[in-house]
Amino acid sequence: xxxxxxxxxxxxxxxxxxxxxxxxxxxxxxxxxxxxxxxxxxxxxxxxxxxxxxxxxxxxxxxxxxxxxxxxxxxxxxxxxxxxxxxxxxxxxxxxxxxxxxxxxxxxxxxxxxxxxxxx
Length: 120
Hints:
Elements: E1 3-8, E2 10-13, E3 18-25, E4 29-40, E5 47-53, E6 58-60, E7 68-73, E8 78-83, E9 92-102, E10 106-110, E11 114-119
Parallel strand pairs: 2-11
Antiparallel strand pairs: 1-3, 3-8, 4-5, 4-9, 5-6, 7-8, 9-10, 9-11
């Protein structure tokens, strides 16, 4: 069974920074193809804001480029999202994401979610 353990988040003022961390664990994981973070703002659908493949290719949505940095440690099955110059529109629940090839399946996995609130 795959587990995604998230940490970080909280309440900050606009312009401040936060860092989110996630560690993926599971006994049957063969390869974590993609790791990243999604975000669900109030009243909106969840979107994948940052992700990185296991060969290091990173993709960020335009709204966070230049402000968010994604880093991945393949040796620890960990992914961090460093968020700077936060804006009120960054408020939402952030979910760790992993696209995993296990011995049983190839599938998407999401964490429980962690709240990030940016006040103006």
